[in-house]
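User: Please fill in residues for this 85-position structure.
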């Protein structure tokens, strides 16, 4: 069974919308749980949450630092978004 061009376009649009919604929801949940918008010292995180936040920040910094030089470099926020954070 083949899909019409219109059905393919609608499916593609829906998938893009759902992917973006999922990434946004994951980012919001991470910001809430890790309190990324607040400085580490003022976030009031317990030890395990603080460790998780530190690991995430270290990973993002490493990804940002080691990306190839060029015009299309991603920001730290781009890496957080790509991981759903």
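Assistant: Residues filled in for all 85 positions:
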């Amino acid at each position: 069974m083949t899909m019409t061009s219109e059905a393919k376009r609608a499916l593609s649009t829906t998938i893009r919308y759902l992917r973006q919604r999922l990434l946004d929801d994951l980012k919001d949940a991470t910001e809430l749980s890790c309190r990324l918008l607040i400085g580490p010292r003022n976030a009031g995180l317990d030890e395990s949450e603080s460790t998780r936040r530190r690991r995430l920040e270290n990973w993002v910094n490493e990804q940002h630092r080691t990306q190839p030089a060029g015009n299309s470099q991603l920001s730290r926020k781009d890496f957080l978004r790509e991981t759903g954070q």
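For context: The chain has three helices and no strands.
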